[in-house]
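DUF1801 domain-containing protein: structure tokens wanted.
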Amino acid sequence: MLSPLDNYFEQKDEPIKSCLQYLRSLLMGYADITEHWKYGMPFYYHKGKMFCYLWIHKKLHQPYIGLVDGNKIEHEDLLQEKRARMKILLINHLEDIPKKKIESILKQAFALRK
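Answer:
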């Protein structure tokens, strides 16, 4: 039987499924990142503290990375919407995933933790 984490990814339809799995593998490639099932979603911790999560935007139906300390990061592609602390980076699952942009934003997020 699949874990709740694995089940979350498996139940998605393509191409969203592949997009989320790619984002998952990208995040897990960083040192000190651990994956947890929290609040009914895949959450990623950095050195034991909540860092980001993966989800699908309810209105836009696009996968996104939600950054816990997003309010401290300035980037034109991060959306605050009605969140106080978090910002999200929408990923268009119908286009190539902007790996360099994601890595640049994650680098800023990691820098906040030092």
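Helices lie at 4-10, 16-28, 99-111. The chain has three helices and six strands.

Cheers.
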